[in-house]
Amino acid sequence: MVFRKLPGVSASGMGLRLSQKFVFLLFLSGLVTLCFGALFFLPDSVRLKRIFLSKSESQPATAAGSGMAENDAGERPKRPREQDRPRGVTSTKGESGVVVAVGGGTGGRGGGGGGGLARFKGLARKMPPSYEATEERLAGEKAQEDQTPGSEKASLLDSGAAFTYKKFRRCLLKPPLGKDGGKPGDPETNERREKVKEMMKFAWDNYKQYAWGKNELRPLTKNGHIGNMFGGLRGASIIDSLDTLYIMGLLDEYNDAKEWVRSSLDLTSNGEASLFEVNIRYVGGLLSAYYLTGEELFKTKVLELGAKLLPAFNTPTGIPRGVINLGSSGSSWSWGWASAGSSILAEFGTLHLEFVHLSELSGDPVYTEKVINIRKLLNKIEKPQGLYPNFLSPVSGNWVQHHVSIGGLGDSFYEYLIKSYLMSDKMDEDAKNMYYNALEAIESNLVQKSPGGLTYMAEWRGGILDHKMGHLACFSGGMIGIGADDGAPDKRQHYLDLAAEVTHTCHESYDRSATKLGPEAFRFDSGAEATATRLSDRYYILRPEVIESYMYMWRLTHDPKYREWGWEAVEALERHCRVESGFSGIRDVYTLSDSHDNMQQSFFLSETLKYLYLLFSDDDLLPPEDWVFNTEAHPLPVVRKNCLQDPSSTAQDNTKLSG
Ligand code: DMJ
């Protein structure tokens, strides 16, 4: 029998026509491509993914918003060996209730605790030479400034003029430190302010003695803590303290801090850092120190550091990932705990203020472009009920789930919208519109009244309310307060009332505890009203948010209750958190036998004590016409483009501009 080869039939004997074989091969190669592609969408924790997609170098920074398509570019989530959320130190207003409890150590109050006002009255009262001295130095520098090389004078983003410190100072409406450093006329308030200053000195001295150069002090074990949030950067407590020391007139301490920055702040680290934390603490702290003092050292350092953050934005959408390698690789990746390689709203949404200033100081628009790109994407994307969920994919630019919170993971994104508007001299209309639209959505969906009449911000999980409010969310009283003037005119009083109600609720969360300090989260269900119902929510880690709102509400209303509430907090901190060698968080605000967590957080120096000091100072200390606080309480100046552009402009001209 002769087998005749039929036309179009494969010689393989499988009986497939050539065209069928072609289709089959096409299908097969499609399948392989699909499988490989699917690896990118697996959660970072999947082992298979790590085998196939090893950590690789990021692309060099390019201007964001390059129009790359979804899933475009060789960019993909990468992860280091240890990609866990940093333990031990809370990160952020952008964090979800991480338990802190670092180290152990119980122990009651040490010998340093308590103590009346008498103990600190003797503190030498040296007023900062700041304003006067700075002015003198500036006069001396005038000649130098006139000889600034042309290159430095180039391209300040849409201002057409290079930044000079002297010009900046001329564009302020008021002296930064006010009259006599903001010293209040009333003796009792002044004593309280001095007490806060003594607390700062005590916290600082102990840090200096036991933890100098480390990130935080462990006050029970009397050593330093480094942690893994800052990618090998050191001295977080020093950078976070610079401006607080300066405004308090603790000048020997400020000079020690400055000297450390000069001699020991090493930015060549090759570690893996939280972009958010490095930005709010280091970039924010150095920027403030520069703007307050005019010391070029701080400007040089902050510009060096800022440049190291840019590779984080090399993603298909320009939305940065949460973790960045500060070394030359510039690789970045998402937190292992964030769903499906997503970025966190409160992290990528809390860069705007600092990045605008990096552009101002460097004359390089790239920083502003990066954050404007984030803004554009958020503005454009569809929002469930007008709300902003906490997780977004930096690859697709879509929300990853629908959990909304004004506390951890969401918080400072909202704060930076209104503050961007204020810091732009009220020119940034996009920020303004986004803020008031978001606030409207928050009011319709999250703001609740408890059976006992307390107003609170619930959390939202795809339409279902979780009747819980985090300590972190307590910043929102102050935020709503500072935005009251610029919304619809007929809503001013409404916003002030809402701000006061939320602040009152947060005060209740303190007042209903045995220690008079508030828990990490409190609930409004199962009969609870502003109290923690879970053991894991009972801790207090020296957080500032409640006191932050007292400070803003005091400045807005001058209702004396806010100063009284602040003083209650001072007394509680002294009684329960002050130990022999510093201040420590406590594990349970509902028991009087204090169990300390052995950690003096750097934000205690930067925020908690600074807001208390401002609360007991006159309003002319860092006046709101000129200064906006970043989310770590580092004051950043309002950017007055018109004034900066016009060399003959002075603060007087700005009175007109800011109406
Ligand atoms: C600080 O680092 C900042 O306020 C941040 O926005 C939230 N977490 C801490 C304070 O609680």
Itemize the secondary structure elements and their pairings.
Blueprint: H1 18-39, H2 47-52, H3 118-121, H4 130-146, H5 165-170, H6 187-211, E1 216-218, E2 223-225, H7 236-248, H8 251-264, E3 272-274, H9 275-293, H10 296-309, E4 323-325, E5 332-333, E6 343-344, H11 345-348, H12 352-362, H13 366-380, E7 391-392, E8 403-404, H14 411-423, H15 429-445, E9 447-449, E10 455-457, E11 459-461, E12 464-466, E13 468-470, H16 476-482, H17 492-511, E14 521-523, H18 545-557, H19 561-577, E15 578-579, E16 582-583, H20 602-615, E17 627-629, E18 635-637, H21 641-645, H22 651-657
Helix pairs in contact: 6-7, 6-20, 7-8, 7-9, 7-20, 9-10, 10-12, 12-13, 14-15, 16-17, 16-18, 17-18, 18-19, 18-20
The chain binds 1-deoxymannojirimycin (DMJ).
Your description of this structure?
This protein is mainly alpha-helical and 659 residues long. It is 43% helix and 7% strand. It has 22 helices and 18 strands. It has helices at 18-39, 47-52, 118-121, 130-146, 165-170, 187-211, 236-248, 251-264, 275-293, 296-309, 345-348, 352-362, 366-380, 411-423, 429-445, 476-482, 492-511, 545-557, 561-577, 602-615, 641-645, 651-657, and strands spanning 216-218, 223-225, 272-274, 323-325, 332-333, 343-344, 391-392, 403-404, 447-449, 455-457, 459-461, 464-466, 468-470, 521-523, 578-579, 582-583, 627-629, 635-637. The chain has a three-stranded antiparallel sheet with strand order 3-4-5. A three-stranded antiparallel sheet has the order 8-11-12, with no helix packed on it. Strand 17 and strand 18 form a beta hairpin. Helix 16 runs parallel beside helix 18 (545-557). Mean pLDDT is 82; it is low at 1-15, 35-132, 138-159 and 652-659. The structure holds 1-deoxymannojirimycin (DMJ). Residues 90, 92-93, 412, 472, 543-544, 603, 607, 631-632 line the site of 1-deoxymannojirimycin (DMJ).
